[in-house]
Amino acid sequence: MFTCALLGYGTVGTGVYRLLVEKKQEIQRRIGVDVVIKWVFDRGFRRTKEFPLPEGVMTRDPEVIFNDPDVDCVIELIGGLEPAKSYILKAIRAKKHVVTANKAVLSHSGPEIWTSAYENLVAIGFEASVGGGIPVIKTVRESLVANDVSSIVGIMNGTSNYILSKMTKEGSEYAHTLEDAQRLGYAEADPTFDVEGFDAAHKLTILAMLTFGQPFSSEDVYTEGITQITPLDIEFAREFGYRIKLLAIGDKGPQGVMLRVHPTMVPETHLLAQVDGAYNAFYFVGDEVGKLILFGMGAGQGPTASAVVADIVDIARMTRERATTSMPFAPNFTLDKSATTIPKIPVTSLVSRYYFRISALDRPGVLAKIGGVLGEHDISIESVVQKGRGKKDAVPIVMLTHEALEQNVRSALSIIDSLEITMDKTVVIRLADLSNVG
After folding, report:
1. Are residues 292 and 148 in the same domain?
2. Do residue 212 and residue 178 come from a single domain?
3. CA 215 to CA 49: how far, in whole Å?
4. Mean pLDDT of 71-76
5. What residues contact 398, with CB distance under 8 A and at least 6 apart?
6. Same domain (yes/no): 238, 121
7. SS3 of 35, please?
8. C or N: which end of the chain has fewer Cβ atoms within 10 Å?
9. How confident is the model at residue 235 (pLDDT cuts 50, 70, 90)?
């Protein structure tokens, strides 16, 4: 028997408990171990109507779980930083395996948690922290273990992708589309974590640690959200042959690693441009495997609960196998502290093509003045589109640039946005260079 305790009985916790009950016989048949939930901890138990719990399983005291010698594995599904982090570390120090879907905790304190698991000879499963039911973590930890991964590129947040997809298809405004996403359950009442890019940054941080083999934090990830994107930008992108996606990008080169999350114009012929709705997609480039893409639902009760149960079953299987030998249990992941530290490159060193939408007065000489500032900062213009002349004082001037240095772009736009001829802050979207991933 493999005995578990569940911390948190919300959306995912309910799904995990339901799966372990409904698929109990199938799981036991496949791995030869009876997986049971002895305890479920929650403060309010507001979800018990959705899937009732039997008598004697519920507790509002987490210490009961940590102090119970029968509990082999603690499943943390509370979310957030605290008390989740403290509970995870307490379970590990009590020699209990841990499964978590908590991307925030791992992006913030992953190395500490993994080191503690290594020292206490217990396993830490976190497949559900990135990509929901998509086996991203397993792929990186196992399938790509013999590869030097140079690029991670992905659509890692379903909420933002749903909003951008709907805006692209219907030409709707951001605010209206967000309301629709909230109504359908794709966006939280407070969507900040998703639409400002923080969720994707946490996932990218975890993947960067796994693929590049050293500690990172979400503070190392340059992060922009999608709130400034308008139907006008989407329409211009379409005219140029692009679609706008919120991409999370991790690149490793001779100079170091750069991590960034921001809206990106993706060529409409690329596979990533075809990923719509609440779906996620992850691209990896390895020196041996080449280009690899994973695609599927990245969130939701079913996919996330499925990933959590997969981790539980993996650990239960490993525990059973080691029980028949004299071999001690070995943790399934740790960072290599002896590895050479890879420099972290700031986004100001990025060289990219850019889309600018400048709101400027419709006056003679305006374009020449803007072009002069860009030229002084070594920014060369590839194409210019101006619409709406004669209709109002301020008109959008849209430019695509050749490759330019991010630092130069920021300096130039700081000057342009301060000119009397500009009426609003310039919208900037980077163009994706996906030549190495498709």
Report:
1. yes
2. yes
3. 42
4. 97
5. 236, 355, 356, 357, 358, 384, 385, 386, 387
6. no
7. strand
8. N
9. very high
- Whose CA is closest to 241, among 268, 275, 218, 206? 268
pTM to 2 decimal places: 0.92
Q: Is the preceding peptide bond at 331 cis, omega within 30 degrees of 0?
A: no
The CATH number of whichever domain residue 76 belongs to comes to 3.40.50.720
Q: What is the spatial distance between Cα 105 and Cα 81, in angstroms, rounded to a whole number?
A: 5
Alpha-carbon span 72 to 88, nearest angstrom? 13
Identify the DSSP state of 422. B
229 and 146 belong to one structural domain: yes
Q: Last residue of some domain: 262, 297, 332?
A: 297
Same domain, 151 and 87: no
Q: Could you report how far apart the first and last alpha carbons of the chain are, in Å?
A: 46
Residue 171: domain span: 141-297
Burial class (CB in 10 A: 0-12, 13-18, 19+), 257: buried
Q: Which of 14-28, 283-297, 315-329, 344-358 has the lowest mean pLDDT?
A: 315-329
Question: What CA–CA distance (Å, rounded) separates 22 from 10?
Answer: 18
Q: Catalytic site residues?
A: 203
25 domain residue, yes or no: yes
